[in-house]
């Protein structure tokens, strides 16, 4: 009886470890609002705490994305988020000194969260809002996909084993969702695809609900139309994907 109990406990421990093969993240929060006339910067992203090739890749990728968003001076080589914030602040200060009565306060809000993880794949969603003057700010979303086994970031095409047929399938589903008649040009209802031909968005991400295709504002439609999203069930797209998805 003692042996049976020991085996059961061992089984439960091993099963639990296998089931909970997830990365551990802690929030990384950076804010700056030093004075009434300074840009307001708010950053909150997940920070992977284990020390592995994968976690280093994730943290480095997030840092590089944020630096590219905030870097105002292209000639400056920022290596940290703080240096990028300094560049963003200098850009605002220079513009305000030149146009004191016309420069509205700049703002940057960047939030990230894990939206999908299984044994092989991980997706982090990065939401950004930037205001640097003008009639309105600009919000955008970025999906960052990672191969957990190889410890690398994935390009969109690497998510698929049959990209060509996936694009054909995605166009069919896009037309259905957006009520674009079959046989009519993709832009016949007001979209702005280049060369009037359907193409996949720059952002494709894994989510709990399915594979999400995201066209940010201005990508294929006007600002007023907002982002264009299409979520495809894993049961329908698994035949196109390079990895098996646990849906």
From TrEMBL:
Residues 164-235 form the DUF3298 domain. Residues 36-137 form the Deacetylase PdaC domain. PROSITE patterns: PROKAR_LIPOPROTEIN. InterPro entries: DUF3298, PdaC, PdaC/RsiV-like_sf. This is Deacetylase PdaC domain-containing protein. It comes from Kriegella aquimaris. The lineage of its organism: Bacteria, Pseudomonadati, Bacteroidota, Flavobacteriia, Flavobacteriales.
